[in-house]
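Sorry, explain these tokens?

___
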Amino acid sequence: MKKIAVLLALALALPLAAFASSGVDFSNDGGTLTGSNSGLSLAGSTLVAVNGYNGGGLITGNLGTVTFSTGTLATGSLLTGGTFNPGGTFTITGNGTDGLTGVLFSGTFTSATWTMITLANGTHNYTLTGVLTGSLGGGSGVSNGVTVQLTINTGKGYFHGSTLISSGDTNVVVPEPGSLTLLGTGLLGLAGMIRRKIK
């Protein structure tokens, strides 16, 4: 009977640890990406889908904007690919549709990589992949995320200071309230105490 109690406590604690965080997904479309050695900046990109914000489901439509600026170019070049220093800003703003109002995510880049992809026909696309840290919905907790922004095909030429974004996706991990973490830790401690008593 005591072994069953230990297994029950562990069965309750482990799922809590596994679900200690959840993700929110933001998709954007369009916008102009401009850049120099000072970094890349996106303006005019439309937020077109949000999934999981405040525990909600998928919402689509014209929902707001996505804007960002990276840190300065650290290695490589904007023509063929490189990396950016930490810094800059990343902001997702809702326009009020379906309750998505104000700043939904505000953060900064901890790292970013600019990659040129040469297709079989000799044309190019570029991808910006960045790791983010910031605040979701104005909360006080720290949320981490990743963004991937894909440019339209630039033809056989290279990036020369400006291009359009085809699409982008940003996933932000949301820490659950501390009570779940405390409950999971407490149950693990209880399981340890029960195990010692059994011995």
User: Anything to note?
Assistant: Residues 1-20, 178-184 have pLDDT under 50 and may be disordered. The first helix runs from residue 2 to 18. The CA atoms of residues 23 and 119 lie 32 Å apart.
